[in-house]
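As promised in the previous annual report, we have extended the structural survey to additional targets. Below is the entry for Radical SAM core domain-containing protein.
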Amino acid sequence: MALFSQTLTIGKLRSGGIITNYHCSSRCRHCLYCCSPSWPKDTMDRETARRAMETILRLGCASVHVGGGEPFLAPQKLLTVLRTAREVGMGVEYVETNASWFVCDQKGTEILHACAKAGLRTLLISISPFHAEFIPFCRVQNLMEACRKAGLHVFPWVDGFRPDLEQLDPHTTHDLQELVDLFGPDYLRRIPRRYWIHYGGRAALFFGRVFGRQSAQAVLDANDRPCSELADTNHFHVDLYGRYIPGLCSGLAVHMADLGRALSEDTYPLLCLLFRKGIRGLFQFAWETHGYRPSRDYLNKCDLCLDIRRHLTLEAGTHYAELHPRTFYEQWWLEP
Ligand code: SF4
Ligand code: SF4
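The corresponding structure token record, generated without further manual editing, is:
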């Protein structure tokens, strides 16, 4: 059982992004980071951006994407991050946006030109049924056109939903039920075949309703492996608080200073436990030490993991620094 004696080291970084803010104009049901308008309007400052990028470069990754939350809610802070990237020699693949902020005025156009001047070449613009619940599609269309005029490439993510949304009034928002009514009762079940979805964060709650849930015991029976995902650096993120998010496990956090060396059990007891013993180890620990009892059924092991971590953070009164930020757990539970 070699895996059970391994220590978790976040070493070479392969591909990832910077989260400049969790605050967002939307509250998408699939959001891995549970972003929403209710988050504090905190943003990444220049010093944190510099430290994060220098660390990412040192660990072998030469370019990142930039996302949120909605980065354009604080355009000057976004520009600071872009300029910092240029200063430290970090490539920026694209900035992600949901287009909600773009209302075709001069200010919006000026922001696009300022981004281009700061070195940005590509804007990823979100297109999905989840975003359409909060953002009129005309904003997406107008932003695409403005990017073309400003000389910015557009990465529509994902373009395959455009025909669906073009059948609806572009000047208003549309809830998922409208799309189900239009395209059939299995519309929601087919979404993951058309769109990359990671079943963590809010997506774990939402797709539990779509695909069904099973008991905690069934989840534990089906998952007897350590969580090796924690060491995966193919899609990492570093947030505005200077925390590295291991794997795609939102709500878990590692200080940037601790990257590149074995994580200490004293500082990261839960991460080390998950890496050695997986969800079964966390469940047993939370049951025996912090009175955790499952109160519902779960989509998968990550849904159960989130529920345990929510209990530790919000109900058991624990203060594990690796469970961060606290707002994530408060927002996760508020299913839209
Ligand atoms: S998926 Fe993007 S637009 Fe939607 S809530 Fe999350 S950060 Fe905001
Ligand atoms: S169970 Fe927890 S630690 Fe393991 S992959 Fe899922 S969210 Fe990450």
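The longest strand covers residues 91-97. The chain has a mean pLDDT of 96. These points will be discussed at the next consortium meeting with the crystallography subgroup.
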